[in-house]
Structure formats: C-alpha cells, structure tokens
Write a structure and sequence with these properties.
With 277 residues, the protein is an alpha/beta fold. 32% of the residues lie in helices and 23% in strands. The protein has a domain at 70-87 and 126-274: P-loop containing nucleotide triphosphate hydrolases (Rossmann fold), CATH 3.40.50.300. It has helices at residues 83-90, 113-123, 139-149, 156-165, 181-193, 211-228, 239-245, 265-274, and strands at residues 40-51, 57-68, 72-76, 98-103, 106-107, 124-127, 199-203, 231-235, 247-252, 255-261. The strands form two sheets. The chain has a six-stranded mixed beta sheet, sandwiched between helices. Bound molecules: adenosine-5'-diphosphate and magnesium ion. Residues 17-37 have a biased composition (Basic and acidic residues). Residues 42-272 form the ABC transporter domain.
Length: 277
C-alpha cells in the first residue's frame, strides 16, 4: 500500500482562489492600462423591470448585483426567472423600469438613446444564441464589424490572435452559411471580443448547438475570456459549465436567489433543483 496513507491529509484546497483574488488582475498584454480602477464592472442596484401591456409582467423584482472586473460569471435559474432580461438590462439593450445600472463606471439610466448606442458599441460585447452573423459578410468581415461600426481602426495582430485562439484560421473567407453551428458561434465570440469591450454578455450562447459541441465552445469561451482578463457574464443551463466559471448567480422569480463562489457541478445542480429548474 502507498505510504501516502500514513501521511497527514493535505490541507483541503477545494478551489483555487487565485482567479478571484481581489488584487488587480494582470492586464492583457495588448492593454497595458487597467480598464476600471474601481474594479467593479457591473453594478445593479434595486433594479426592477416590468414589461408593459394589459397585464404587466414583472421580470426583475429588485436585483442587487455587483460583478468585478475580470470576473467570469454564470447566470442560471428556471425558465422565466429573468435571466435574459437581466443581461439585456445590464448590457444596455433594454432599460430598467427603476433602479440603477452602472457598467464600467457609467450610469446607463442617465444616458440618452444615442449615448447608450455609442456606449454599447465601445464597451459591450454580446453573444446571442442565434449567432446573428451577417450572412453576406465573410468570417473576417463579421469579426471586424464592431470596429467598423465604431469607426475604429482594425488591429490586425489582435484579430489574427482571436481567429487563431478560437480555431478559425483558414475559415476567414467563408460565409456564415458555409460554417457549422460550432464554427458560427466561435465567429460570434471573436466578434464580441474584437473591440476589447469592458464586458461581454452571452445569453445561452450554445443553446442552438448539440450538447457536446456546446460544452466545447463554452469551455473555449471561458478559457479565452480568462486569458484576456475579459469580464464575462454568461447565461447557461449547464451546471458543469457554470461550475467552471467560478461565480454563479442564481435567479428565481426575478430576484437573485443565491450566489455561489467556486461551486462544484453537484452543488450547482442541487441548488438548481431546489429552485425548481
Ligand atoms: N418582451 C417581453 N414582453 C413581455 N413579457 C416578457 C418579455 N420578455 C420576457 N418577458 C417575461 O418576463 C419574464 C422573464 O423572462 P426572461 O428574462 O426571458 O426569463 P429567462 O431568460 O430566465 O427565461 C417571463 O415571465 C417572460 O415571459
Ligand atoms: Mg432567456
């Protein structure tokens, strides 16, 4: 039998705290200045969102949430719990009914529609379930689109690095219709990262892919985000992927029901079950 049996048990080290250390993270090599000295990427305070109509639907009912710069967070919860509404409001794609939303130090509720559009172009990346690639533009042009829209000069080195890192080398001149679902979503991820936004939101980005491909793409997305020090918020139903993010926000009935730091797959799955996934 192994002699290690007789040694004292090693100190429990269930989770590596390093990625969540409050010390400033190393800025990405292309970006020597930290983006946000306050270290808070997103802050929602008392956010309510009620969809209008004959019978108003309260989708968010008092959300308080703070996410640190460089954090990678999974948002989970039963269908209809407000996940899509939360990321839309935090990304400035939709407005809160009341409460305050601050992203990268900017109060979104105080912005005019034009300012909000500019802000989104410059600071926010978004990955949708349905890819939303422009069908008549090739892969390279789809990836460059956020820079074109923001009248920014492309950084060829950075784009090439993204293409390479996301396994898209050789596909630059294909049209979206000539890509598999997994390839298309990797293009959408490159596009969300190309302008080095302060924050990237992804709403069930692999919901249209088969489970195995979806998981591969999501793990790649998380790895790349970490490598770049990119703040990322991803809505997912996959407890394994959520556990890999390190920070899990659980929604139920339009409220934050729980937050988990570095949970295991099993802990996430068990908590979801309790919330009536
Ligand atoms: N555009 C809309 N108009 C009216 N109700 C909506 C709209 N979008 C979402 N809802 C409602 O708001 C609640 C939260 O929806 P959503 O944020 O999409 O939840 P999730 O993404 O967790 O499934 C649900 O009751 C949903 O039916
Ligand atoms: Mg949704």
């Amino acid at each position: 039998m192994s002699t290690t049996r007789d040694l004292p048990a090693p100190a429990p080290a269930p989770h590596d705290p390093a990625p969540h250390d409050p010390a400033p993270h190393d800025p990405a090599p292309h970006d020597p200045a930290p983006r946000d000295p306050a270290r808070v990427a997103v802050s929602l305070t008392g956010v309510h969102k009620t969809y209008g109509g004959v019978a108003p639907v309260p989708a968010l009912r008092g959300v308080d949430l703070e996410l640190l710069t460089g954090s990678v967070t999974a948002v989970m919860g039963p269908s209809g719990s407000g996940k899509s509404t939360l990321v839309s409001v935090a990304a400035g794609l939709d407005t809160a009914t009341s409460g305050s939303v601050r992203v990268a130090g900017h109060a979104l509720d105080a912005m005019s529609p034009d300012a909000l559009t500019r802000f989104r172009r410059e600071q926010v990346g978004f990955v949708f379930q349905g890819y939303n690639l422009v069908p008549h533009l090739d892969v390279a042009s789809n990836i460059a689109l956020p820079l074109v829209l923001a009248s920014r000069r492309p950084d060829a080195g950075w784009s090439a690095h993204l293409v390479d890192r996301l396994g898209l080398a050789g596909l630059e001149h294909r049209l979206p219709g000539e890509l598999s679902g997994g390839q298309a979503q990797r293009v959408a991820i490159a596009r969300a990262l190309v302008a080095r936004p302060s924050i990237v939101f992804a709403d069930e980005p692999t919901g249209a892919l088969d489970a195995r491909t979806g998981r591969q793409v999501l793990h790649l997305f998380l790895d790349v985000a970490r490598e770049f020090g990119q703040t990322l918020v991803v809505v997912t139903h996959d407890a394994g992927v959520a556990a890999a993010t390190g920070e899990v926000v659980l929604l139920a009935d339009g409220r934050v029901a729980d937050r988990m730091h570095a949970p295991s797959d099993e802990q996430v799955a068990a908590r979801l079950l309790e919330l009536g996934r």
